[in-house]
Specification:
The complex is a heterodimer of chains A (about 270) and B (about 270). Chain A has about 270 residues and is α/β, with parallel strands linked by helices. Chain A is built from twelve helices and eight strands. Helix content of chain B is about 40%, strand content about 15%. In chain B, strand 1 and strand 2 form a beta hairpin. The longest helix of chain B has 13 residues. The chains are: A alpha/beta (about 270), B alpha/beta (about 270). Chains A and B meet through strand 2, helix 1 and helix 7 of A and strand 2, helix 1 and helix 7 of B.
Chain lengths: ~270, ~270
């Protein structure tokens, strides 16, 4: 694969198409391949650059170093964009990758033209959610248990535990074989996820975003991901929000054409 | 993307992993992404080089021109492998890509170490065809022609459904995940080329002339000519090995990536 050397690490990426650069950042347990469904439509208008974050496939991480964290990944994406031959770029992140993209926009607005946050992951602190209680997230214990199984070599057991905790009993078993395999290829990153150190979003964080921002989500997504999206959108100045009917968290895989139509319209309209 | 210049065309490819090179050739409506589900397992032991044939995505082809030919794609793959080091390489082809891999093995055995044909596509000539026609169902070429008519009239969805259902049975298109559908959609205009591609039927003397160690692999639930061709070829390619993937159909490596990879890796290591 093509790589850029950032902060001592060869960061792999897939680059397709010509036009203004659009850097895409995947979420937990994913890699550059997650954007496959939207690569066609987006690359008709953009130079799509889909990265794999440090320790994700094609890397085969053993889960033993302490170099997996939100802070590291934010540093890496900043260094990656700073090394590109054209700046500013458009930046799109999904889920945990949306969290990273948000943090990049906070720190280095000079690198960015427009920002797309597809159901960014994370928590809201007390300035954004009165119900917020500091401390480990409710899922932390389940993630730690799943990571323990993976560290011990039981990849299937760890992923089953993780998915069933998030999506309900039997969720892993119901996944089609192709996405399952991509998650398996990234299973050890779940070990790093236990020391991710993801700071919660604050009102001041959201108000500080100066980059034109699109929030995009699945209309059927429930719970924290939906709450985070709508709350952040209410506090990021001039943010646009689009919810795609009939879809949930992997909205760009479920409705690639609609997703691309919205994203391309946003990127063209600035 | 990375590209190699072959016969006046920049042929795109994705390269992942280290080890002996394994060149992968997609089939009809596929591209380098066809192999995503097995990229992880295969790249543990091989340098996987997944090509996009001339006019397939990432090119956005309009169907104009007369160089979408079976012979052109065979010449392109040969010219591509000639630029890979070290040689000989391992070569794997799926469906129409399996046909191409067979023709490469016929023309240039010096380039190949081992070859894997995953349900190669094509017709059997009189020297190979069973006495009676396999069934009353129309041949794939007839279904492709019907799909081309639909593309020409702007009915992309109808064209795709007709093609996929012809291969994996009625309702197969509807069951495909949206992301897989989008990848086929990205390549729909290549069907226009396929009508005039001049694919010759397989002959017994051709199969008997293959000297590269060959694995033929198929899905246990594949029906029609695609389930027949590889079994007939296996009877006539000297020393050919076979493998059947339980519970899988024509896109067996997406439906059972672990089982597929295990069979392929065992053959390549053996």
């Amino acid at each position: 694969m093509q790589t850029l050397h950032v902060n001592g690490y060869d960061m792999a990426y897939l680059e397709v198409g010509e036009g203004p650069p659009l850097v895409c950042v995947h979420g937990s347990l994913c890699d550059f391949r997650i954007w496959s469904a939207v690569l066609g439509p987006l690359s008709k208008h953009h130079r799509v650059i889909a990265v794999s974050l440090r320790h994700f496939f094609p890397d085969r991480w053993d889960g033993l170093s302490d170099t997996y964290s939100i802070a590291q990944h934010v540093d890496d994406v900043i260094a990656f964009i700073a090394k590109l031959d054209t700046r500013p770029v458009d930046l799109m992140g999904h889920s945990r990758g949306g969290h990273i993209a948000f943090r990049v926009a906070q720190r280095r607005p000079d690198l960015l033209r427009e920002l797309i946050l597809a159901e960014p992951g994370g928590e809201l602190d007390a300035t954004l959610d009165p119900a917020f209680r500091p401390g480990p997230s409710p899922l932390a214990e389940r993630i730690a248990a799943a990571a323990g199984k993976i560290a011990a070599g039981d990849v299937e057991g760890g992923l089953t535990l993780f998915f069933d905790a998030i999506e309900g009993a039997g969720a892993w078993g119901r996944l089609p074989a192709t996405p399952k395999q991509q998650l398996r290829d990234n299973a050890t990153t779940l070990i790093g996820q236990t020391w991710d150190k993801r700071p919660p979003f604050s009102k001041a964080d959201a108000e500080a975003i100066a980059t034109p921002t699109l929030f995009i989500g699945g209309a059927n997504t429930k719970g924290a991901l939906a709450q985070v999206l709508h709350t952040l959108a209410a506090h990021v100045k001039g943010a646009r929000t689009e919810m795609i009917p009939g879809t949930t968290h992997p909205m760009f895989e479920q409705a690639p054409e609609k997703y691309c139509e919205i994203v391309l319209d946003f990127l063209a309209g600035a | 993307m990375q590209t190699l210049r072959v016969n006046g065309y920049d042929m795109a490819y994705l390269e992942v992993g280290k080890g002996p090179p394994l060149v992968c050739v997609h089939g009809t409506l596929g591209d380098f992404r066809t192999w995503y589900a097995v990229l992880g397992p295969l790249s543990r032991q091989h340098r996987v080089i997944s090509v996009s044939l001339r006019h397939f995505f990432p090119e956005h082809w309009d169907g104009a021109g007369s160089d979408y030919l079976m012979s052109q794609h065979v010449a392109d793959v040969i010219a591509f492998i000639e630029q890979i080091a070290p040689r000989p390489v391992d070569l794997i082809g799926h469906s129409r890509g399996g046909h191409i891999a067979f023709r490469v093995a016929q023309a240039r055995p010096d380039l190949l170490r081992r070859v894997v044909l995953a349900e190669p596509g094509g017709d059997l000539d009189a020297s190979l065809a069973p006495a009676a026609p396999a069934s009353g169902t129309p041949s794939l070429a007839v279904r492709v022609a019907a799909s081309v008519k639909k593309v020409a009239s702007g009915d992309i969805e109808g064209a795709l459904m007709n093609f996929v259902d012809a291969i994996d049975g009625d309702g197969a298109w509807a069951r495909l995940p949206t992301a897989a559908k989008q990848q086929l959609r990205d390549n729909i205009f290549t069907l226009l080329g396929q009508v005039g591609e001049k694919r010759r039927p397989f002959a017994r003397s051709e199969a008997e002339s293959i000297t590269t160690p060959t694995l033929l692999i198929g899905g246990a639930d594949t029906e029609g000519t695609l389930s027949l061709i590889w079994r007939v070829l296996a009877e006539h390619i000297p020393g050919a090995k076979t493998a059947v993937i339980p519970g899988a159909r024509h896109w067996m490596f997406e439906q059972a990536p672990q089982e597929f990879s295990k069979a392929v890796l065992a053959f390549l290591a053996g």
